[in-house]
Amino acid sequence: MTIIAGLGNPGFKYRHTRHNAGFEAIDALAKKYRVRIDKKGRKSLFAETVIAGEKVILVKPQTYMNSSGESVADWVHFYKCDPSAQLIVLSDDVTLDYGNIRIRKKGSAGGHNGLKSIIRDLGTEEFIRIRIGVGKLEPGDDMIGHVLRKPMRDDRRKIIAAYDRCVGAAELILRGDIDGAMNKYNAKQ
Length: 189
What we know:
39% of the residues lie in helices and 22% in strands. It contains 7 helices and 7 strands.
């Protein structure tokens, strides 16, 4: 059993904002595997599927970004998962150019409040994360304003293209090849 959680904020107001890149990457996985993320439980919307022979729960926490850990930790504890091997978190990243992704086996939150919440509620930084570039924050830019705005059309296209790379990366990770996923997908696009 592996839990793949995409981070974002619920509600139409936040649809297609930079901060919802994790939600949209989860939607790309759901689309490829022909499941609907419409079940409710553990403060989330979720779906069950099989990817690369592995049973997977696709999760979109409905707790708002800063409390994502409440939902994610609930899933991990319910299934008695080892977060270092059975949890993949998809989130936006303002340090990456539009459309680039970065996969890591573990690490700090890097200033991302959703990841901070998960680290706090799990009590560990050891879980796989796939971070999606939503455009670098320029000096003097307002962080909250940046992540809660929708990107310009050309930039959005680059972010959407990254979702396919997230799907490919998740598939490799689920096949047990995280190093291969990092080598293939961490390259700049």
